[in-house]
Specification:
Elements (H helix, E strand, L loop, with lengths): L12 H4 L13 H14 L3 H15 L5 H18 L2 H18 L5 H16 L3 H16 L6 H17 L3 H19 L4 H17 L2 H16 L6 H17 L3 H19 L6 H14 L3 H19 L4 H16 L3 H23 L7 H7 L1
């Protein structure tokens, strides 16, 4: 029986879209028009159409002196490419945005902080935790000191830094960051805004990691109610919430219910993102584990194989997410008495993780508790 259930379902790209909510537009301003239209298309999961609009916005300012707008367009493209799983393109766009903002503003400006946040998120997704951490800390320090303050941008950074802490297996550090981000959003947006559902979903992940399953279910169901009744669709966030509820069903050994929930989440994401998007891989892995609990080993093996193919295509064959799938495959093979095959996969996974461990040890860790305390 596979007992290590992947359980941290986290949404951050949608949170980055909060930075666009203040954008209104006039038909006389092409850049604002394209940017607002693209943001709506992105929220709807229509990524190809959103890309065309964001590119039009970029072209409207690329040859002008409006460097602030150029930086914003590059960040928009970086965030979109992150949602699409095009991480190399996302990293290029975010690095260009950071270069633009550093050229036109103070190193601790909100523009620089926003670019740092986007680039850090791209690094985090790829398992480059040390690089991501340095950028998040720099962005948070700038946003804490910003005049005038931009609380929604601060909430995004708090959210994303918390997600990094979850990825580093530090949920107790993540919890106060997420609670503060949630408080900021509720105070500005109101309890029924879809961004609140996103924040509640991330807090659910903290409670799951801490083993606080009753709290996790309460918050997850609140998130589900918000997202299901939102006027603007947020399919990715909705699917993530459903996955958390599925994990709780697994905890109760209600495997038929868990299977139905995972399949619902898979259908939502496949229709929104396409059948090969990286966000589908965790659902496939967890659905495979449900099948393993039920003794359906052939189905488990097929789903793990498909998730590996998706992650290799999205992140590369030597990436940290690929190592996670290899370990799951090895576990299943050992259960099926195919030990020689399992050993090969374990050796490959161990080599990948060792390489990433060396990379992350080159960075440093900063505890933000002191920074947060100074704010009070």
């Amino acid at each position: 029986m596979i007992v290590r259930q992947t359980k941290l379902f986290i949404s951050c790209s949608s949170a980055l879209l909060l930075l666009l909510n203040s954008v209104g537009f006039s038909g006389e301003d092409p850049w604002l028009k394209y940017t607002a239209e693209a943001a709506q298309l992105q929220r709807d999961g229509l990524y190809s159409e959103a890309e065309a609009k964001y590119v039009s916005a970029y072209r409207a300012v690329v040859d002008t002196a409006e460097s602030g707008r150029l930086g914003r367009s590059l960040i928009d493209l970086a965030n979109l490419y992150t949602d699409m799983g095009r991480y190399a393109d996302a990293e290029t766009a975010a690095q260009r945005a950071l270069k633009v903002y550093r050229k036109i503003s103070d190193p601790k400006s909100t523009g620089v902080a926003t670019a740092q946040n986007s680039l850090a998120e791209i690094y985090r997704i790829q398992g480059k935790y040390a690089a991501a951490e340095q950028l998040y800390i720099q962005a948070l320090a700038a946003q804490e000191a910003a005049t005038p303050p931009n609380p929604l941008a601060l909430a995004v950074t708090l959210n994303n830094l918390a997600i990094l802490r979850l990825s580093q297996q530090r949920p107790s550090v993540a919890e106060p960051l997420l609670k503060r981000a949630l408080d900021i959003r509720e105070g500005i947006l109101g309890a029924g805004d879809p961004a609140i559902g996103t924040a509640q979903n991330n807090l659910t992940s903290v409670y799951l990691a801490l083993g606080r399953y009753v709290d996790a279910e309460i918050v997850a169901r609140r998130a589900l109610a918000v997202l299901e009744h939102a006027q603007i669709r947020h399919p990715v966030d909705l699917a993530l919430t459903i996955q958390n509820l599925a994990y709780l069903s697994v905890r109760r050994e209600q495997y038929a219910e868990a299977e139905a929930l995972y399949k619902r989440a898979l259908d939502i994401l496949a229709r929104s993102l396409g059948s090969q998007h990286a966000n589908l891989a965790p659902i496939l892995i967890n659905l495979g584990k449900v099948y393993c609990h039920q003794g359906r080993y052939t189905d488990t093996e097929a789903l793990l194989r498909r998730s590996l193919e998706i992650r290799v295509a999205a992140f590369g064959p030597d990436s940290f997410p690929v190592a996670e799938v290899l370990y799951d495959q090895a576990f299943l093979l050992r259960k099926l008495k195919r030990k020689s095959e399992a050993k090969k996969l374990e050796a490959r996974a161990l080599a990948i993780r060792a390489a990433h461990a060396r990379e992350n040890l080159e960075g440093y860790t900063v505890d933000v508790s002191g920074l947060l305390a100074r704010r009070k």
